[in-house]
Amino acid sequence: MILAIESSCDETAAALVDDGGRLLSSVVASQSELHARYGGVVPEVASRRHLELCVPVVERALDDAGVGFDRVDAVAVTEGPGLIGALLVGLATAKALAFARRLPLIPVGHLHGHVASLYLEPEPVAPPFLVLLASGGHTLLAEVDDHGPGMHVVGQTLDDAAGEAFDKGARLLGLGYPGGAALERLARDGDDRAHEFAVAMAGREGLDLSFSGLKTALRTAVLAAGGDDGGRADLAASYQRALVRSLVSRTMRALEVTGRDTLAVVGGVAANGVLRAALEQECARAGVRLALAPLALCSDNAAMIASAARFCPALPYPEYLARDAYATA
Ligand code: KG4
Ligand code: ZN
Question: 285 and 200, same structural domain?
């Protein structure tokens, strides 16, 4: 049984997964309310909160699974990329827990974790596939050939991540942080054709993405539109449509270029209903098998880290004590 800890950004999370890939418990303590008043994550504030939450969250994960710590065979932890101070809290906690019981430690890459959200029972999706990973920190298209950490990136954002574009759009529309889900809710009452926001085409056979121009276009439109609610809903719907069109067009192109017949979609933005529906439609048309991450596992969580850990090398006791976290991929 693997106990995993995730603390790369503003979620403190712990989960237990058994040797067969069954999820026994998954606890996520979100700090987003703490950071909302600043309009984004404050790294030092996040680190300090992780410090307070890490042990209670691990205890809760064990409680929820109804098992004692003596049943755990290995401790897994996100080692990067992410906020360095935040990562260090999770890593130090995981090292201490593993060391205390002479267990192995399994360091996991956060992006591998997002992909591995698809590998859990009861309906695991196995590679090979093309993956669209769209989160608040990363947006990329990559070929995945096995369950391990390796992936071949064929396209990525040149500026903002898709989640970041949702968050910045939400902020311009006066919604809170993080704004992706709030923007999606506001957009339900709007006309997605009310505004025509151009979608940038960039580099590498058209497989890279860019969202910064879109954000500027929204800013201009918000200033022009004034503040009534109907106007804001139209703006949200049109902006979301442009973001989704950009993601979908680049993804379908990547499927063509790579010749892959299965598309996997993971990360916080994979929770977006409009994106999910658009990909379902396009994949059905193109005869591509579509595997969407379960809604509960799109945003950051430790279940995906435990899942990835099953396919990563374990560092034996006590070799991991000098292991360091890393901020960038
Ligand atoms: O994967 P994640 O939890 O954290 C990172 O690794 O970055 O992704 C968080 C991002 C945020 O930017 C959030 O606004 C976005 O995912 N997000 C959404 C939705 N739910 C979360 N974006 C669009 N629509 C949603 N329903
Ligand atoms: Zn993430």
Answer: yes
